[in-house]
Write a structure and sequence with these properties.
Chains A, B: Its EC number is 4.1.1.5. Chains A, B: It is an enzyme of class 4 (lyase). Chains A, B: Pathway: Polyol metabolism; (R,R)-butane-2,3-diol biosynthesis; (R,R)-butane-2,3-diol from pyruvate: step 2/3. Chains A, B: One of its GO terms (biological process) is acetoin biosynthetic process. Two copies of one chain form a homodimer. Chain A is built from six helices and 14 strands. The first copy, chain A, is α+β, with helices and mostly antiparallel strands. The first copy, chain A, has a single domain, classed as 2-Layer Sandwich (60s Ribosomal Protein L30, Chain: A). In chain A, strand 4 and strand 5 form a beta hairpin. The first copy, chain A, is globular. The interface between A and B is large, with 37 and 37 residues.
Chain lengths: 244, 244
């Protein structure tokens, strides 16, 4: 349990609901995003790939399987989350996979109603990721995109898992439960984590007091977008429900 | 449309979902809440009344219909929202009621996907409020409490409406749509606004870039609370769905 005097914040730009509706134009620059944290995940303008941010360095996995080291700080993102690592709880896990993270681990750390960041490093026996392909206008819904996303696997690879846990009641605002990305130590393999298992991983867990949810209020597509909560819930379940 | 360089934040402590589940113990002091804004709404420990905060002064409407001017800054609240009035858009409305706020007004200001604060002053032809009665442990669900809340009406009264608009996708985190409280100029009549109409009101609208959602992460009832999303949606619809 952290002390009462420490306040930590997860910063999120954009909402999953708006992205689901096909609002995929970037609405925050990398430069502005990095003002709120050095570590995180997201996607680029047009849903172009899976982003991993570690120590202020930005990596983009694109849908042919390559990883770009992005140095353009004016590139824009429609949806991204970052934080500043601090007040970390050290984690050591054996025989770990999504079943363990969703089960014993989430229960032990009483995650279900809070936001947390997880970083895990080590050698992975197996990793499976997916990478969103860049979309062109008129943008389809995220559900349509999700049906045709390429996946990639890698065995015996050393790397880092980075991402977040979000409470179920925020499940239209962001991805509920675990939303994790992976990047290999050689920065050649990365993506949105679908499956993994490892004998031994080490890392850290950070629990947030605050979600700072930033809205692109000057973006008309965001502002005017229609939300059908029933369709939204079904779509999120189909496109994001892949971790258990 | 506000400028890109102005950032404003709505601060919220606690979640509607947790309150619905019966977690009614206060988890933030008035002193700590007021660090994040001078104006807002909320409720006290044990769901004791309806709170109106104007210019840093805290008023509590209690269920016998009286209004207390609260000066105890160590009193605790389980759920509250505050902001600092700034970058205000002046509002003048004729023949205004909830139908107008939910319809033309929300559409004109493109509110549906954003958070906003509304403050309206003037003479009201009619006002109907409800006031949550203080609960004792073991706390019931908010749905149970909502079934038996006293209501009060007042005609030809001058006063202020203060409260917030929230997007539908945040409807388990806070009250979606309008969540407004009322207090009379003589500070003798106040509560959670159920109905009103007025010939002419003036005030201001403030649109937020950010929701700062603060969680009572050291509170075990909050941390461990079970959320059944289906029951939660039904309960919120029944207990909060009163403005249209």
């Amino acid at each position: 349990m952290k002390g009462n005097d420490l306040i930590s914040t997860l910063y999120e730009h954009g909402t999953l609901a708006s992205l689901m509706a096909g609002n995929m134009d970037g609405t925050i620059t990398v430069a502005d995003l990095l003002k709120h944290g050095s570590t995180g995940i997201g996607t680029f303008n047009g849903l172009d790939g899976e982003v991993i941010i570690l120590d202020g360095e930005v990596y983009q996995a694109v849908s042919d399987g390559h990883v770009n080291h992005m140095t353009d700080r004016q590139a824009k993102m429609p949806f991204a989350s970052v934080h500043t690592p601090e007040d970390l709880e050290k984690i050591e896990l054996s025989n770990v996979d999504f079943t363990a993270l969703n089960g014993d681990f989430a229960e032990k750390h009483a995650l279900k109603n809070i936001f947390a960041a997880l970083r895990l490093k080590g050698n992975f026996n197996h990793v499976k990721v997916r990478i969103a392909p860049k979309q062109e206008k008129p943008y389809p819904s995220l559900l349509e995109v999700a049906k045709g996303q390429p996946t990639f696997t890698n065995d015996n690879v050393t790397g880092t898992i980075i991402g977040y846990y979000a409470p179920e009641i925020f499940g239209s605002v962001t991805a509920a439960g675990w939303h994790l990305h992976f990047i290999s130590d050689d920065r050649q393999f990365a993506g949105h984590l679908l499956e993994f298992n490892a004998d031994q991983l080490t890392g850290d867990l950070q629990i947030f007091d605050n979600l700072q949810q930033h809205m692109p209020i000057n973006d008309q597509a965001f502002r005017q977008g229609e939300v059908d909560m029933g369709i939204l819930r079904d779509s999120i379940a189909q496109s994001e429900g892949n971790n258990d």
